[in-house]
Design a protein that fits this description.
53% of the residues lie in helices and 19% in strands. It is α+β, with helices and mostly antiparallel strands. The strands form 3 sheets. Strands 5-4-8-7-6 form a 5-stranded antiparallel sheet, sandwiched between helices. The longest helix is centred in the last third of the chain and has 67 residues. The termini are far apart.
């Protein structure tokens, strides 16, 4: 009893008057889709057991149908035709085995679904699931819900147009993980009508992960480049910008999209563009880094000085693949450098003037020292030649003892004035008062406190007070140290 057959097998069954029964629709559609892909006749016959056997007969050609249906052929002709048919059947079996091996061992799953997306056949286990557990389930169950719409639309499009389509989705991968697939859909046709869809998903998870990593790196690089003051861009040729960073766009007063991947003639005036292109041509032709300082007007019309570097990236053949450019606004720095140079020049002039003044002062000081020396010499000579002789005459003419004592003090003071002791004493101990200096001379000459009091018309207590003050100002702390001995040592 024949329970189903494809058109070619059905023709043979009718001629042989086999009893026919209709197969269940779901089983029939899957079986027809499978047999339609091969050029053989098939019959599904029911045996004494529950197993169903496939009987194959090569009855798809007009010639073979004639062999089966003709009653007037000779035995030799029938035998020759049967041998030919056996040969064709063997060839078809080899072809079928080759195709089955190709499909079964394909690197990606090959799935057959019907219009409702129900899996009717699959060539290999997927995601650790057995084939028997996959057949009969919906192929939507193996994709994330947000992709069900595009999957259903794609299946409907193949049934409607008979053309192949493809899409990318995320689905359930091994051990329940999420994997990415690029999926191709192709029609299964019978008699020009689409009766099923072949789905071939290919795992692109590693590629997606690499793309995500690359995208992350690109975003991080863009984040870094967009948060520096240096303008950065690259050139694909002498006239065309590639990507740009935010600093460059802000300098021109535009958005990044307004200058990225644009021709310089679309960004600058003709004159400015030609100057820019001439600089670009130099680095493309020389294949070496070029550094320049250029005055450029920004988006607000302000003239700014930019320090520009252009570095070529060479390919394996040594040709310029692209040029990386960087520009830094150095206007304020140059202005500061210029102001510093002007200040340095002014300081140098002032230093020269001060040098001249110092030279003049040194001359004046030398002249002052010279004049001082001359004055000291004059005073010394005048005192010695003019004053001291008169003092000697007075000493002879005066008989009063008191007057002679005063005259002795005058003579002693005059000698001290022209002696080095007075100079050393006044220069080393500038805090001494004139009375203390006068008293120091008398102490040095060996005068007692009483004699000093009489000569200076002071009380003895006042003289002792001055003596103590002199000791303190000269740093004599030891009470046993003799003041006269210290003065004589000077």
């Amino acid at each position: 009893m024949v329970i189903d057959a494809n058109p070619c097998g059905m023709s043979f069954a009718i001629n042989k008057r086999f009893k026919l029964f209709e197969r269940p629709k779901r089983e029939q559609s899957c079986w027809q889709a499978e047999t339609l892909m091969r050029g053989e006749g098939f019959m599904l016959r029911a045996g004494s057991q529950r197993d169903r056997l496939y009987s194959r007969l090569s009855c798809y050609s007009t010639q073979s149908r004639e062999v089966l249906m003709a009653d007037k052929l000779s035995y030799e002709e029938l035998e020759q035709r049967v041998r030919q048919l056996d040969k064709e059947v063997a060839e078809l079996k080899r072809s079928e085995e080759g195709w089955r091996s190709l499909v079964k061992n394909a690197p990606s799953p090959i799935i057959t679904v019907d219009r409702d997306g129900i899996i009717r056949d699959i060539n290999q286990a997927v995601a650790g699931l057995e084939i028997e557990k996959v057949v009969g389930t919906s192929h939507y169950d193996y994709a994330l819900p947000e992709y069900h719409k595009v999957m259903k639309e794609s299946v409907e499009q193949v049934f409607k147009t008979g053309n192949s389509v493809s899409y990318e989705i995320a689905g359930v991968g091994p051990e329940g993980s999420t994997s990415w697939y690029v999926t191709g859909l192709g029609p299964i046709k019978r008699g020009g009508e689409v009766v099923g869809v072949t789905i071939m998903p290919r795992d692109i998870t590693e590629r997606k992960q690499a793309e995500q990593e690359l995208r992350k790196v690109s975003e991080e690089q863009a984040l870094l480049l967009d948060n520096i003051d240096t303008q950065v861009w690259y050139l694909t040729d002498i006239e065309t910008h590639g990507a740009v960073n935010r600093a460059l766009a802000e300098f021109w007063g535009v958005q990044k999209s307004d200058i990225a991947y644009k021709n310089v003639y679309d960004i600058l005036s003709k004159e400015e563009a030609e100057v820019c292109i001439a600089g670009n041509r130099e680095v493309f032709e020389s294949k070496r880094q070029v550094r320049t300082e250029e005055w450029v007007k920004n988006g607000r019309g302000e003239l700014r000085l930019l320090s520009v570097s252009k570095t070529p990236k060479l390919d394996k053949e040594g040709n310029v693949e692209y040029v990386v450019c960087a520009a830094e606004d150095i206007t304020e720095r140059k202005q500061a450098e210029q102001a510093l140079r002007e200040r340095e020049t002014a300081l140098e002039i002032q230093a020269e003037e001060l040098q001249e003044v110092n030279t003049a002062l040194r001359v004046l000081l030398r002249q002052r020292d010279k004049d001082k020396t001359e004055l000291e010499e004059k005073v010394f000579l005048n005192v010695r030649e003019l004053v001291m002789p008169q003092v000697e005459k007075l000493k002879k003419a005066i008989s009063d003892a008191r007057q002679k004592a005063y005259l002795g003090v005058l003579e002693s003071n005059l000698n001290e004035i022209i002696s080095p002791f007075a100079h050393r004493l006044s220069s080393k101990y500038s805090s001494l008062t004139p009375t203390e200096i006068q008293m120091a001379f008398l102490i040095r000459d060996g005068k007692t406190t009483k004699e000093i009091a009489e000569l200076l018309n002071l009380s003895g207590r006042t003289v002792e007070s001055h003596r103590q003050s002199i000791r303190m100002k000269m740093g004599i702390r030891n009470r046993r140290a003799n003041l006269r001995s210290h003065l004589l040592s000077m």
